[in-house]
Amino acid sequence: MTLAQPRPFTSEQAERALAAFRISCPRLLQRQDASGLTSSVNWQPLCTEAVAVPAGGATAFFQSRFEWVKVGTDPAFATGYYEPEILGSRTPQPGYAVPIYRTPSDLIRCTRADGQTGRGRYDATGQCVLYFTRPEIEDGVLAGKGLEFAFAADPVELFFLEIQGSGRLKLLDGTVLRLGYDNQNGREYVAIGRLLRERGILPPGGANMAAIKAWMKSQPDGGRSLMRENPSFIFFRELTGPGPLGALNVPVTPRSTVAADPLFVPLGAPVWLDVDRPEADGLWVAQDTGGAIKGANRFDTFWGAGDYATQVAGGMAAKGEALLLLPRGTVAQAQARGQGARAVVIN
């Protein structure tokens, strides 16, 4: 870790980030920081101060009350996610046959014979084994167990909703059922855009989401074989309150929430980005995680719902710089613990 000077951001970004930080604070004070950089004791004064920040005072709060820190040496890489809306039904209907599953009761954390602990299930012999893959689930291994609570019209659209982790299901009567991430089968996430790129068969327009969707739907199998190369599978729950909910179990905020790797970034911490997509520049708050979001400087920016969010998030692949805003004294404490922190200030 390296200390850095505070960077510029707009007052609008500061106000949005302050609102998101306030929402995060109750959870921030309850959780153990998986990164090991901070503790709830470190955050308590900042959370107390955040409540009392007056109107127009957000900019000064973030500039003066935090330690701005660069973690690692790699450049930042930021993608985008959004809340998609797809067509669906609560019951199977003609044209609405793709099941949306809630979490199965046999999906647990257990230790396999190789000593690895993670998501899995007990097989007929009582051994902990990996959970079913996407192809196995699509082929019906969970069918008839009462886990289906809705049905999508288009398997490709549902696949991309899984990638986003949450979304909206527009029902036949015009109402909306909101889907929230509940669990994952424990299998590795394989990015289909990367597969297409490696095989030299990217659709016209490159690896942006719209082009990939169009290419998949043009294939004889509707993209099914490509989707099945990603063994990861997401289980959902119906959301009835505000949301969608992030990893902190608080509602995520468009243009304020960023997903990060909790092994490097304390969830609830503000994050500053300066990347080659100016829409993503400025202050964010780490309120979420993602299966593909790994590493100290890997972030996924949340844009909300609607056409603009879909367009921006679907094409977001930005490189640049990221800084964390942490409680004062974090670098000194890391130095004392031998975590490789440097008290050198970078401009």
TrEMBL record:
Recorded GO cellular component terms are:
outer membrane
Under the heading Pfam families, the entry gives: 3D (PF06725), MltA (PF03562)
Reactions the enzyme catalyzes: Exolytic cleavage of the (1->4)-beta-glycosidic linkage between N-acetylmuramic acid (MurNAc) and N-acetylglucosamine (GlcNAc) residues in peptidoglycan, from either the reducing or the non-reducing ends of the peptidoglycan chains, with concomitant formation of a 1,6-anhydrobond in the MurNAc residue
Q: Which organism is it from?
A: uncultured Sphingomonas sp
Q: How is this protein named in the record?
A: peptidoglycan lytic exotransglycosylase
Taxonomically, which superkingdom?
Bacteria
EC number from the UniProt entry: 4.2.2.n1
UniProt entry keywords in alphabetical sequence: Cell wall biogenesis/degradation, Lyase
What would you give as a GO molecular function for this chain, any one?
A: hydrolase activity, hydrolyzing O-glycosyl compounds
Q: One GO biological process from the UniProt record?
A: peptidoglycan catabolic process
The segment(s) forming the Lytic transglycosylase MltA domain are: 85-237
Provide the organism lineage as a comma list: Bacteria, Pseudomonadati, Pseudomonadota, Alphaproteobacteria, Sphingomonadales
